Amino acid sequence: MPGPFIEDAQIAHARKLAEEIVNPIFDLIRRNTTVSIERTVLRFFGISGAGARGVPLANLMVDKLKAAGVLNRGAAYWYGRALQLGAKSPLEAVERLTALPTDKLGPLPAEQEQRLRAEVREEARAALEDMKARLAQRDALRQQFPMSPAPHKYVIVATGNIYDDVDQARAAAQAGADVIAVIRSTAQSLLDYVPHGATTEGYGGTYATQENFRIMREALDEESRKLKRYIQLTNYSSGLCMSEIAFCAAYERLDMLLNDAMYGILFRDINMRRTFIDQYFSRRICALAGIIINTGEDNYITTADAYDAAHTVIASQFINECFAKRAGLKDWQLGIGHSYEIDPYRDDTLLLELSQAMLVRRCFPDAPLKYMPPTKHKETDIFFSHAYDVMADLVAIWTRQGIQLLGMMTEAMHTPLLADRFVALKSANYIHRAARGIDEEFTVREDGKIANRAREVFAQAMKLLQECRDEGMVAAIGKGHFGDVKREETGGKGLDGVLEKSPDYFNPFLEILEAA
Amino acid sequence: MVKPSKQIIRPYGDRRDDGVVQLSFTLPVPLSEKAKEAAAVFTRKMGFSDVKVAAAERAADNYTFFIVYARSGMYLDYAEIDVPEVVVKKMSFDDLNAFIKEKVGRRIVVFGACTGTDTHTVGIDAILNMKGYAGDYGLERYPGFEAFNLGSQVPNEDLIKKALAKNADAILVSQVVTQRDVHKDNSRHFIEAAKAAGIHGKVQLLLGGPRVDHKLALELGFDAGFGPGTKPSDVANYIVHALLKKEGKEPQDMHFQGEPT
User: Fold this and answer.
1) Residue B91 in contact with residue B23, Cβ under 8 Å?
2) Which end of chain B has the least Cβ crowding within 10 Å, N or C?
3) What residues pair up with B200 in beta bridges, in sequence order?
4) Nearest neighbour of A268 by CB, restricted to B60, B62, B129
């Protein structure tokens, strides 16, 4: 480890501040549910199909329950009631159920209520066991074909056709990629449903659908066996359907998910309450499924200046970590995000980038960390761009990043050509091979530029954490402290999908996941 | 009559007129001697000579990546190249922000909404939201802009009132739904409301949507219209130049790349 720079007690204090910031938000999380969480519950029960015109059955059912004003008791409860009605399909049962006049929707006699809950709880347990069995297959494959040493080289495919994505992903794996990210269609995060089926004509990517996940994971399983090296798959659990996508990903045995407690609020203008509530359940699912989350702090410094806003990244990482730990995620699952984004025309940028990456490593010693390449200051001179990316490779190995998204020399031009990935992988392999262990050979002087800069950034981060603690997270976001974006608590999309739980709210999955 | 040639040029490798170019491409075949020859044949077919396949790399099982050097016999008369340089180039994200800082000296305030009964925020979101569209950042991400996206189904009067309260420089109205020309009716209504509020001709009023073009927008009383395929950077560049023109800091007849026509 390159340095203490900062005293342990100070880092512990940052964690304590993050906890105090996050605490009040947990009142909100405990009191409320969302349409997306309720749809996730139904998906757990196997309701993953789509009805007429591709509308997911989970949406049809939840919308009906919401319209009838009874969703606040929990979709799981109504699923149980529906089954008791003996309809041929759960959807039909819900239709019948919600067609009943409101006075017929009241609670059943206490004993019957208890029995219903016990039965549904039993079914939930079975559903989770089923999922765990699927995940065990993934874990066995990982054991059989170990991954390359970290940093795990992460590349993106983005053709818009899942079958073309498969070809590109296989080629990338053959060239040495460890993690494949399938880029999602533009603006999916604003859809309040998860599209159904395989995507062949996506714009800017493919939809995150359960079927697309299945197709890609199957191809990568085959490739892993061929290469005798496990290839990981990641996608995006962000936007209005965080927890539903987390479910689909867990069910289809994905390895990672981009999942951030605040990204949707800041960068997609999704309502704050909605995001905080959704992220919790989505992370509970990731915790169960052994999915590594990737947080999105790198985005802050594509908006704000990477030098000036360096401390916002650190502050947010502590907050994201706290949210994650509260949802049951372990250190090894925290792909805490940051990036190599300081303007390359400044002086000392390699030192500044090392300082920042070492600081992140110092604050989160046991997390894998997710390192992002330069994007903001990328130029179309591919030769310069390539050299620029190679410096990020060096910082990644020096600071023992767990996951490294490789820069593409054609960044800022077009989606990567097949050869761009090959070139990036070849040079990352070289740098990682050449410099492995460099952190143990060089000690960073405590009175030098790197250490001083780290202390300066950390001190600013502490100040920001204190402000967030004193004023509350909502006010801090309202002031534009993160990524220079201002959001209001009741603004943004998806607030109408937030419901206050009734006193007898029932969600057996949440119960089981929280007890685990 | 053939124009007299003035300045014949060819690519310069390490000597004048050697015509050397470097190429790189991938062929969908496994790496082999045959694949290398295929790369050379392909390069010769493009009209190059002295082809040297410098590198042939296994990019994947069934793909080979080549770096090729070759000479071209082509030449051109530089004197005949005619590019009018009056049009100002569209500025990049960083350049535009620096330009705003220097020329405007403050953040430009922009309000946007999908007004009337229209619930489709996809257009206004693409232009204003942080994330942007097709890799082109939205106005929220520009330090030079202070952008407010009010979302959908916003009454025209509300949008105007809120924009006025923050001294907006520009208001963006997005209209996606076009059944029975509802977008035109609502747009006319917006302009009436803008006139009533006394901001018509003062604040930049921009219209956008899949069935909108610049001509239609002008007819309806807007300052500019943006149709399908518009990127946030097009709108950003337009607003900056229009503002500078209004403030007399740029000539009225100045034109720039990507402006609505």
Assistant:
1) no
2) N
3) B203
4) B129
Q: What is the pLDDT of residue A348?
A: 97
Tokens found for residue A135: 């995940």
Query: May I ask the CATH class of domain B93-246?
Result: alpha beta
Q: HSE-up of B61 (CA within 13 Å, CB side)?
A: 10
Helix (H) or strand (E) holding A300: helix A300-303
Instruction: Tell me which CATH code domain B8-78 carries.
Output: 3.30.30.60
Subunit contact B130:A485, Cβ cutoff 8 A: yes
First to last CA, chain B: 35
What is the model's pTM? 0.82
Burial of A216 from C-beta contacts in 10 A (0-12 / 13-18 / 19+): buried
Residues of A with Cβ-Cβ distance to B154 under 8 angstroms = none
Instruction: Determine the average pLDDT of the residues in A333-346.
Output: 95
Domain range summary for chain A, segments of one domain joined by +: 32-144, 145-451
Which of chain A's residues have a Cβ under 8 Å away from the Cβ of B60?
Answer: 170-172, 174-175, 418, 422
Cα A72 to Cα A108: distance, rounded to the nearest angstrom: 16
B125/A267 touch (CB, cutoff 8 Å), yes or no: no
Q: Say if residue A171's pLDDT is above 80.
A: yes
Query: Chain B: nearest CA to A509, how far in angstroms?
Result: 33
Enumerate the β-bridge partners of residue B57: B65
Mean local confidence (pLDDT), A370-395: 94
Q: What is the pLDDT of residue B83?
A: 65
Give the pLDDT confidence score for residue A136 in this predicted structure: 97
Rounded to an integer, what distance in angstroms lies between the CA atom of residue A62 and that of residue A55? 12
CB contact under 8 A, A418 and B60: yes
Amino acid at site A303: T
Question: What pLDDT sits at residue B84?
Answer: 58
Is the pLDDT assigned to residue B2 strictly greater than 80? no
Note the pLDDT of residue B116: 84
The reply to whether A263 belongs to the active site is yes
Residue of B nearest to A343 (CA): B94
End-to-end CA, chain A: 33
Residue B85 has pLDDT above 60, yes or no: no
Instruction: Kindly list the residues from chain B whose CB atom is less than 8 angstroms away from the CB atom of residue A267.
Output: 129-131
Structure tokens at A123: 């079914």
Q: Where are the domains of chain B?
A: 8-78, 93-246
Contact list, B129 vs chain A (CB under 8 Å): 267-269
Q: Which of A170, A172, A187 sits opposite B122 (nearest CB)?
A: A187
Calculate how close chain B gets to A129, using CA atoms only, in Å. Answer: 38
Are residues A249 and A478 in contact, defined by beta-carbon separation less than 8 angstroms?
no
CA distance A416 to A424: 10
The span from the CA of A350 to the CA of A391, in Å, is 7
Place A51 in a pLDDT band, splitting at 50, 70 and 90.
confident
Enzyme catalytic residues of B: 131
Please state the rounded mean pLDDT for residues B157-163.
93
Q: How high is the ipTM of this complex?
A: 0.88
Amino acid A52 reads A
Tokens of B42: 């392909």
CA distance A335 to A487: 25
Tell me the three state secondary structure of residue A338: strand
Choose the catalytic residue: A64, A370, A378, A493.
A370
Residue A379: pLDDT band with limits 50, 70, 90: confident
